[in-house]
Design a protein that fits this description.
By secondary structure, the protein is of the alpha+beta class. The protein has six helices and 17 strands. The C terminus is likely disordered.
Length: 284
Amino acid sequence: MDRARRQAPVATPPFHTWVFPDGTLWTEFHRNDGGYLLRFPQLADFQVAADARTVTGVPVPEVSEGTTQHLYLNQILPLVLSKLGKLVFHASAVEIGAGAVAFVGESGRGKSTLAASFAVSGCRFLTDDGLVVEPSGEGFAALPSHPSIRLWDDSEAALIPPAARRAPPVHYTTKARFLADENLAFCETPRPLRRVYFLGDGGSTRLELHRLSPAETLLEWVKHSFLLDIEELPRLASHFDQVAALAKQPIHYRLDYPRRFEDLAAVRQVILAHAREEHDDRCN
Protein backbone atom coordinates (compact mmCIF):
# COMPACT_ATOMS: atom_id res chain seq x y z
CA MET A 1 0.00 0.00 0.00
CA ASP A 2 1.37 3.42 -0.96
CA ARG A 3 1.37 6.58 1.13
CA ALA A 4 -1.96 8.41 1.36
CA ARG A 5 -2.64 11.20 -1.11
CA ARG A 6 -5.53 13.13 -2.58
CA GLN A 7 -7.26 11.64 -5.61
CA ALA A 8 -6.11 13.36 -8.79
CA PRO A 9 -8.52 13.94 -11.69
CA VAL A 10 -8.63 11.13 -14.26
CA ALA A 11 -8.29 12.29 -17.87
CA THR A 12 -10.75 9.80 -19.37
CA PRO A 13 -14.22 8.79 -18.20
CA PRO A 14 -14.67 5.38 -16.56
CA PHE A 15 -15.62 2.46 -18.79
CA HIS A 16 -17.80 1.09 -15.99
CA THR A 17 -19.22 2.19 -12.63
CA TRP A 18 -20.88 0.68 -9.61
CA VAL A 19 -23.73 2.79 -8.27
CA PHE A 20 -25.83 2.25 -5.15
CA PRO A 21 -29.64 1.97 -5.54
CA ASP A 22 -30.00 5.57 -4.31
CA GLY A 23 -27.79 6.78 -7.16
CA THR A 24 -24.60 7.29 -5.11
CA LEU A 25 -21.44 6.51 -7.07
CA TRP A 26 -19.47 3.74 -5.37
CA THR A 27 -16.71 2.67 -7.78
CA GLU A 28 -15.20 3.94 -11.03
CA PHE A 29 -13.40 1.51 -13.37
CA HIS A 30 -10.69 3.12 -15.53
CA ARG A 31 -8.09 1.71 -17.91
CA ASN A 32 -4.57 3.12 -17.93
CA ASP A 33 -1.13 2.15 -19.18
CA GLY A 34 -0.50 0.01 -16.12
CA GLY A 35 -3.76 -1.90 -16.32
CA TYR A 36 -6.75 -0.71 -14.33
CA LEU A 37 -7.46 2.09 -11.88
CA LEU A 38 -10.36 1.35 -9.53
CA ARG A 39 -11.46 4.48 -7.70
CA PHE A 40 -13.61 4.63 -4.59
CA PRO A 41 -14.34 8.38 -4.38
CA GLN A 42 -13.01 10.04 -1.23
CA LEU A 43 -11.72 6.69 0.04
CA ALA A 44 -8.96 5.06 -2.01
CA ASP A 45 -7.55 4.25 -5.44
CA PHE A 46 -6.36 0.77 -6.41
CA GLN A 47 -4.00 0.20 -9.31
CA VAL A 48 -4.43 -3.33 -10.67
CA ALA A 49 -1.85 -4.65 -13.12
CA ALA A 50 -3.06 -5.71 -16.56
CA ASP A 51 -2.50 -9.35 -15.63
CA ALA A 52 -4.05 -8.77 -12.17
CA ARG A 53 -0.95 -10.20 -10.49
CA THR A 54 -0.16 -7.06 -8.50
CA VAL A 55 -2.35 -4.49 -6.75
CA THR A 56 -1.36 -1.20 -5.14
CA GLY A 57 -3.73 0.64 -2.84
CA VAL A 58 -3.55 4.38 -2.19
CA PRO A 59 -5.90 5.75 0.49
CA VAL A 60 -6.86 9.39 0.70
CA PRO A 61 -5.64 11.20 3.82
CA GLU A 62 -7.60 10.48 7.01
CA VAL A 63 -8.79 7.10 5.68
CA SER A 64 -7.55 4.33 7.94
CA GLU A 65 -5.37 1.44 6.85
CA GLY A 66 -8.12 -0.88 8.07
CA THR A 67 -10.61 0.75 5.71
CA THR A 68 -8.24 0.32 2.77
CA GLN A 69 -7.62 -3.31 3.67
CA HIS A 70 -11.35 -3.88 3.99
CA LEU A 71 -11.94 -2.40 0.53
CA TYR A 72 -9.26 -4.69 -0.86
CA LEU A 73 -10.70 -7.84 0.73
CA ASN A 74 -14.35 -7.16 -0.08
CA GLN A 75 -14.17 -5.32 -3.40
CA ILE A 76 -10.79 -5.63 -5.11
CA LEU A 77 -9.79 -9.22 -4.36
CA PRO A 78 -13.00 -10.72 -5.85
CA LEU A 79 -12.45 -8.66 -9.01
CA VAL A 80 -8.80 -9.73 -9.23
CA LEU A 81 -9.76 -13.39 -8.82
CA SER A 82 -12.32 -13.02 -11.58
CA LYS A 83 -9.66 -11.59 -13.89
CA LEU A 84 -7.52 -14.64 -13.09
CA GLY A 85 -10.27 -16.92 -14.36
CA LYS A 86 -12.10 -17.73 -11.12
CA LEU A 87 -15.86 -17.77 -10.71
CA VAL A 88 -16.67 -15.17 -8.03
CA PHE A 89 -20.17 -14.11 -7.04
CA HIS A 90 -22.01 -11.76 -4.71
CA ALA A 91 -23.09 -14.52 -2.33
CA SER A 92 -22.72 -15.84 1.19
CA ALA A 93 -22.31 -19.53 1.98
CA VAL A 94 -22.61 -21.85 4.97
CA GLU A 95 -21.75 -25.46 5.67
CA ILE A 96 -24.68 -27.83 6.12
CA GLY A 97 -23.72 -31.44 6.74
CA ALA A 98 -20.86 -32.29 4.40
CA GLY A 99 -21.76 -29.68 1.78
CA ALA A 100 -22.12 -25.95 1.21
CA VAL A 101 -25.27 -23.91 0.70
CA ALA A 102 -25.05 -20.50 -0.99
CA PHE A 103 -27.33 -17.48 -0.70
CA VAL A 104 -27.15 -15.16 -3.71
CA GLY A 105 -28.70 -11.74 -4.09
CA GLU A 106 -28.37 -8.01 -4.33
CA SER A 107 -27.26 -5.91 -1.39
CA GLY A 108 -30.00 -5.80 1.23
CA ARG A 109 -31.57 -9.15 0.33
CA GLY A 110 -30.35 -10.81 3.55
CA LYS A 111 -27.29 -12.84 2.48
CA SER A 112 -25.19 -11.86 5.49
CA THR A 113 -28.07 -12.13 7.94
CA LEU A 114 -28.78 -15.68 6.80
CA ALA A 115 -25.10 -16.64 7.01
CA ALA A 116 -24.80 -15.17 10.50
CA SER A 117 -28.02 -16.86 11.61
CA PHE A 118 -26.62 -20.25 10.61
CA ALA A 119 -23.16 -19.51 12.04
CA VAL A 120 -24.42 -18.60 15.52
CA SER A 121 -26.55 -21.77 15.41
CA GLY A 122 -23.54 -24.03 14.78
CA CYS A 123 -23.46 -24.34 10.98
CA ARG A 124 -20.13 -22.84 9.98
CA PHE A 125 -20.00 -20.04 7.38
CA LEU A 126 -17.58 -20.05 4.44
CA THR A 127 -18.04 -16.47 3.25
CA ASP A 128 -20.10 -13.38 3.86
CA ASP A 129 -19.69 -12.17 0.25
CA GLY A 130 -17.32 -12.81 -2.63
CA LEU A 131 -18.09 -16.52 -2.99
CA VAL A 132 -15.49 -18.36 -5.10
CA VAL A 133 -16.79 -21.48 -6.86
CA GLU A 134 -14.62 -23.94 -8.76
CA PRO A 135 -15.16 -27.26 -10.54
CA SER A 136 -14.55 -30.37 -8.47
CA GLY A 137 -14.98 -34.09 -8.77
CA GLU A 138 -18.46 -33.79 -7.28
CA GLY A 139 -19.59 -30.95 -9.51
CA PHE A 140 -18.55 -27.62 -7.99
CA ALA A 141 -17.01 -26.60 -4.67
CA ALA A 142 -17.49 -23.47 -2.57
CA LEU A 143 -14.23 -22.00 -1.24
CA PRO A 144 -13.84 -20.20 2.11
CA SER A 145 -13.14 -16.47 2.18
CA HIS A 146 -11.82 -14.23 4.98
CA PRO A 147 -13.46 -15.17 8.31
CA SER A 148 -15.73 -12.21 9.05
CA ILE A 149 -19.34 -11.13 8.58
CA ARG A 150 -20.69 -7.59 8.16
CA LEU A 151 -24.11 -6.75 9.62
CA TRP A 152 -26.41 -3.79 10.06
CA ASP A 153 -27.40 -2.78 13.60
CA ASP A 154 -30.74 -4.61 13.59
CA SER A 155 -29.17 -7.91 12.49
CA GLU A 156 -26.42 -7.50 15.07
CA ALA A 157 -28.96 -6.91 17.84
CA ALA A 158 -31.03 -9.93 16.80
CA LEU A 159 -28.22 -12.42 16.21
CA ILE A 160 -24.79 -11.60 17.60
CA PRO A 161 -23.81 -12.47 21.20
CA PRO A 162 -22.33 -9.56 23.20
CA ALA A 163 -19.01 -11.40 23.52
CA ALA A 164 -18.48 -11.73 19.76
CA ARG A 165 -15.22 -10.29 18.37
CA ARG A 166 -15.77 -6.98 16.61
CA ALA A 167 -13.33 -5.65 14.01
CA PRO A 168 -12.37 -1.94 13.99
CA PRO A 169 -14.91 0.28 12.18
CA VAL A 170 -14.32 1.45 8.61
CA HIS A 171 -15.01 4.87 7.08
CA TYR A 172 -17.56 4.07 4.42
CA THR A 173 -20.26 2.07 6.20
CA THR A 174 -22.02 1.86 9.54
CA LYS A 175 -22.13 -1.90 9.23
CA ALA A 176 -20.25 -3.69 11.99
CA ARG A 177 -17.81 -6.47 11.08
CA PHE A 178 -17.55 -9.52 13.32
CA LEU A 179 -14.63 -11.93 13.30
CA ALA A 180 -15.08 -15.67 13.43
CA ASP A 181 -14.72 -17.20 16.89
CA GLU A 182 -16.53 -19.66 19.14
CA ASN A 183 -19.66 -17.50 18.78
CA LEU A 184 -19.49 -17.24 14.98
CA ALA A 185 -18.40 -20.57 13.52
CA PHE A 186 -16.19 -20.53 10.40
CA CYS A 187 -15.36 -23.31 7.91
CA GLU A 188 -11.75 -23.17 6.67
CA THR A 189 -11.95 -25.84 3.96
CA PRO A 190 -13.79 -26.04 0.62
CA ARG A 191 -17.12 -27.84 0.61
CA PRO A 192 -19.13 -29.39 -2.26
CA LEU A 193 -21.80 -26.96 -3.41
CA ARG A 194 -25.09 -28.75 -2.66
CA ARG A 195 -27.72 -26.01 -2.92
CA VAL A 196 -27.94 -22.43 -4.20
CA TYR A 197 -30.76 -20.11 -3.16
CA PHE A 198 -31.33 -16.88 -5.09
CA LEU A 199 -33.02 -14.55 -2.64
CA GLY A 200 -36.18 -12.63 -3.45
CA ASP A 201 -36.91 -9.10 -2.29
CA GLY A 202 -38.77 -10.09 0.87
CA GLY A 203 -42.14 -9.11 -0.52
CA SER A 204 -43.61 -12.57 -0.03
CA THR A 205 -46.09 -13.04 2.82
CA ARG A 206 -44.86 -16.61 3.37
CA LEU A 207 -41.81 -18.70 2.60
CA GLU A 208 -41.68 -19.60 -1.10
CA LEU A 209 -39.21 -22.04 -2.62
CA HIS A 210 -39.11 -23.28 -6.20
CA ARG A 211 -36.61 -24.83 -8.58
CA LEU A 212 -35.02 -22.70 -11.33
CA SER A 213 -34.35 -23.88 -14.86
CA PRO A 214 -30.77 -23.82 -16.21
CA ALA A 215 -31.67 -20.77 -18.34
CA GLU A 216 -33.09 -18.89 -15.36
CA THR A 217 -30.09 -19.90 -13.26
CA LEU A 218 -27.62 -18.74 -15.90
CA LEU A 219 -29.17 -15.25 -15.94
CA GLU A 220 -29.06 -15.04 -12.16
CA TRP A 221 -25.43 -16.10 -11.89
CA VAL A 222 -24.36 -13.65 -14.60
CA LYS A 223 -26.22 -10.83 -12.85
CA HIS A 224 -24.37 -11.50 -9.58
CA SER A 225 -20.88 -12.06 -10.98
CA PHE A 226 -17.75 -10.13 -10.06
CA LEU A 227 -15.98 -9.09 -13.29
CA LEU A 228 -13.05 -6.69 -13.48
CA ASP A 229 -13.39 -5.85 -17.19
CA ILE A 230 -16.90 -6.16 -18.60
CA GLU A 231 -15.59 -5.33 -22.09
CA GLU A 232 -12.88 -8.01 -22.30
CA LEU A 233 -14.55 -10.35 -24.76
CA PRO A 234 -12.31 -13.46 -24.39
CA ARG A 235 -12.70 -13.38 -20.59
CA LEU A 236 -16.46 -12.80 -20.92
CA ALA A 237 -16.77 -15.80 -23.22
CA SER A 238 -14.79 -17.98 -20.82
CA HIS A 239 -16.83 -16.72 -17.87
CA PHE A 240 -20.07 -17.44 -19.68
CA ASP A 241 -18.98 -21.01 -20.45
CA GLN A 242 -18.01 -21.58 -16.80
CA VAL A 243 -21.28 -20.17 -15.53
CA ALA A 244 -23.29 -22.19 -18.04
CA ALA A 245 -21.68 -25.40 -16.73
CA LEU A 246 -22.50 -24.39 -13.17
CA ALA A 247 -26.09 -23.50 -14.11
CA LYS A 248 -26.67 -27.02 -15.41
CA GLN A 249 -26.25 -28.42 -11.91
CA PRO A 250 -29.72 -29.32 -10.50
CA ILE A 251 -29.14 -27.41 -7.27
CA HIS A 252 -30.58 -23.94 -7.92
CA TYR A 253 -33.71 -22.47 -6.34
CA ARG A 254 -35.54 -19.20 -5.80
CA LEU A 255 -36.13 -18.47 -2.11
CA ASP A 256 -38.24 -15.68 -0.68
CA TYR A 257 -39.71 -15.11 2.76
CA PRO A 258 -40.87 -12.21 4.97
CA ARG A 259 -37.88 -10.43 6.48
CA ARG A 260 -38.74 -10.82 10.15
CA PHE A 261 -36.07 -11.79 12.66
CA GLU A 262 -38.55 -13.81 14.69
CA ASP A 263 -39.06 -16.06 11.64
CA LEU A 264 -35.38 -16.81 11.03
CA ALA A 265 -35.35 -20.03 13.07
CA ALA A 266 -38.22 -21.40 10.97
CA VAL A 267 -36.48 -20.30 7.75
CA ARG A 268 -33.33 -22.12 8.85
CA GLN A 269 -35.29 -25.30 9.53
CA VAL A 270 -36.84 -25.22 6.05
CA ILE A 271 -33.43 -24.70 4.45
CA LEU A 272 -31.86 -27.46 6.55
CA ALA A 273 -34.60 -29.92 5.64
CA HIS A 274 -34.35 -29.00 1.96
CA ALA A 275 -30.58 -28.75 1.63
CA ARG A 276 -28.84 -31.30 3.76
CA GLU A 277 -28.03 -34.77 2.54
CA GLU A 278 -26.60 -35.77 5.89
CA HIS A 279 -27.92 -34.26 9.09
CA ASP A 280 -25.40 -32.38 11.22
CA ASP A 281 -26.57 -32.38 14.85
CA ARG A 282 -24.68 -29.17 15.52
CA CYS A 283 -27.20 -27.27 13.35
CA ASN A 284 -30.50 -26.69 15.12
